[in-house]
Specification:
about 350 residues, alpha+beta, 10-stranded antiparallel β-sheet, 3-stranded mixed β-sheet, about 20% strand, EC 2.7.7.78, GDPGP1_C, HIT-like_sf
């Protein structure tokens, strides 16, 4: 076990939150500086499995502005994903888990200094600053979202002064690679459709994402009086899926009121119920995990990258979400309106 003194602690409170940020005019916050500096230091000491090298990026032609990035190293060099067979799969202390991180992989503590809540590198990065938020790490919890983990991740997003910091969660049977509670956090400096796409009333404070191939649910921070209320209502939806063993993906992004605004004055959380994936994922194929549902496609194979079309991506996203969206929509409404 690492000595707590070897891991720096990042202290913050509510006055450090940034509720509005500007496009491409950012002055990095202390949190951004610390995250990026410690991430680069980890890169310098070769803590990663490879040095991030996105060989090519492009927006696919069409209405959804899918972003495709060619990152073959992620397929060739990453750790073999864990075999996931059930949403009830218990934590396995024998295989890889996040209690086995080296000191070089841990960037800083975001709790009380006991290394239970930390930010660590993702050793197989898909973008700049790609790291993991590990809450209650030493409890060895399986990859089942907790309200505490969601709250911590929202706080970290608000500590940033960048419009481009995103957070993401894959449940078990939704392409989670490690069955130990974790969130992804990374910078994606591309304007994305889901930052401002029209969403539609569903029930109080919860919206539907329907003019998009991956249909799902959306909550906005601006609908709530406090971060706590925002988190609680979001967790209510996610936990409904968890309790009913419905595979799901969750993505958090800064948001703006209109497409051409340069002010990001909101935060959106997207939640997708989806067709479950069982087994070991093929790391060379186009894998529809959480980032792909958001429209950020990390492609491992050059032929796939060169030939990918919006229609193909749309068909995949629709195939994995449509049936479960329709299945869940009315049942979830009944549950929430009780």
């Amino acid at each position: 076990m690492l000595s707590h003194k070897q891991i720096p602690t990042f202290f913050y409170d509510a006055k450090d939150f940034n509720f509005a940020v500007k496009l491409y005019k950012e002055q990095e916050s202390l949190f951004d500086n610390v995250l990026q500096q410690t991430w680069k230091q980890a890169e310098e000491v070769k803590a990663f499995r490879y040095i991030l090298n996105i060989k090519s990026s492009k927006s696919l032609k069409g209405r959804y502005r899918f972003l495709a990035q060619l990152n073959p190293d992620r397929a060739q060099c990453r750790r073999t994903p864990e075999t996931i067979t059930s949403m009830l799969q218990s934590f396995n202390s024998i295989g890889f888990n996040f209690t086995k991180l080296t000191q070089q992989e841990i960037l800083f503590d975001i709790g009380n200094g006991d290394t239970n809540d930390i930010v660590a590198i993702n050793a197989s990065p898909l973008e700049q600053g790609h790291c993991l938020v590990l809450t209650e790490r030493l409890k060895c919890l399986p990859q089942v979202m907790t309200e505490h983990s969601l709250y911590k991740v929202i706080e970290l997003c608000l500590l940033s002064n960048s419009w481009s910091l995103r957070a993401a969660f894959n449940s078990l049977c939704a392409h989670a690679s490690v069955n130990h509670l974790h969130w992804h956090l990374y910078y994606l400096k591309y304007e994305m459709l889901l930052e401002y796409i029209d969403i539609y009333n569903y029930i109080s404070d919860i919206y539907l994402l329907i003019n998009y191939p991956a249909k799902g649910f959306c909550l906005k921070l601006s609908s709530f009086k406090s971060i706590r209320e925002f988190v609680s209502q979001t967790f209510l939806v996610v936990n409904y899926l968890q309790l009913h063993q419905v595979a799901h993906n969750v993505y958090i992004t800064r948001a703006k009121s209109r497409p051409n605004d340069d002010l990001y004055n909101d935060v959106r959380i997207y939640i997708w119920a989806r067709k479950p994936f069982i087994g070991v994922k093929d790391t060379t194929a186009f894998i529809p995990a959480v980032c792909e549902l958001f429209g950020h496609l990390s492609i491992r194979d050059e032929n796939v990258y060169n030939n990918l079309t919006e229609d193909e991506v749309s068909n995949v996203l629709n195939d994995i979400t449509d049936e479960y969206f329709l299945l869940i929509k009315d049942k979830l409404k009944c549950f929430l309106e009780k």
